[in-house]
Structure formats: structure tokens, C-alpha cells
Amino acid sequence: QVHLAESGGGLVEPGGSLTLSCVAAGTIFSIIESIDAMAWYRQAPGKQRELVASMSSVGRTNYVDDAKGRFTISRDNAKNAVYLQMNSLKPEDTAVYYCNAGGVRLRNTPGIARDYWGQGIQVTVFS
């Protein structure tokens, strides 16, 4: 019903920058009316998935401590998109990054809110 398309990952040297993008798209049968929170999670090999940053529909943000001051999350509600600007990247930022859209409401199912995940995108920071 809703597909999250992620882009912008890749290889970067320590200290470098990357910007991740995620766009949530419905279909002609499942038009997105609203999305509560959009977020980025990451999962490194052998570790649990963790929240990196989130932004509510009114712009309230939350960051994991390690990302504060280095990463910036932003949204374009008109495009159902969320972005993650990552600066001063470190090898420990290496992970698969997942986009999450929380509280998605569709026009054809009023009163129902669901969460959706992207497939994940690899970010590798290496020297």
C-alpha cells in the first residue's frame, strides 16, 4: 500500500558527509493523507536496530546522543519525504539505515494508522 524509497547511501571517508533521502508513496488506491512521525534508524552488523533521528509532523526532532551536532533531520510534508544530513561521519556510523514512516493515514482507510519501513540503505565509512 505504501512504499518508502530510500536513496543517498554509499561509501565515504571519515569526516565526510552524506545525505539520505526517503519518500513515502502510496497508490491511486491508497493515497496518503498524513504521516505523524518520520524517522531514520540504523542497524550495524551484530547490533540491534536503533533510532538515529526522528521528526514529528510539526517539526519536533529527537536524536540519538551520538548524532547530535553531526546529523540533521528534515521533512517535506508536501512530498511525504524525510532527509538525513550526516556530517563528520565516523567508522562507527557504518550501518544499514532504515526510513520509518509512523502513523500513516490513508484516504481509503480513515481512522487507521500504520507504520511502514523502507528496505534499508547501506552507509559505509572507511579509511
What does this structure look like?
- The protein is mostly beta strands.
- 0% of the residues lie in helices and 56% in strands.
- Strands 2, 4, 5, 6, 9, 10 and 11 form a 7-stranded mixed sheet that branches. Strands 1-3-8-7 form a 4-stranded antiparallel sheet, with no helix packed on it.
Feature tags:
127 residues, mainly beta, 7-stranded mixed beta sheet, 4-stranded antiparallel beta sheet, 11 strands, elongated
What is the general shape? elongated
The N- to C-terminal Cα distance equals: 40 Å
Radius of gyration (Å): 15 Å
The poorly predicted ranges are: none
Largest sheet: 7 strands, mixed
Name the beta content range.
over 45%
Order of helices and strands: EEEEEEEEEEE
Helix-strand category: mainly beta
Give the total of beta strands: 11
The mean pLDDT is: 96
Level of helix content?
under 10%
> How many helices in DSSP terms?
0
Topology of helices and strands:
Layout: E1 3-7, E2 10-12, E3 18-25, E4 32-43, E5 50-55, E6 61-63, E7 71-76, E8 81-86, E9 95-106, E10 113-117, E11 121-125
Parallel strand pairs: 2-11
Antiparallel strand pairs: 1-3, 3-8, 4-5, 4-9, 5-6, 7-8, 9-10, 9-11
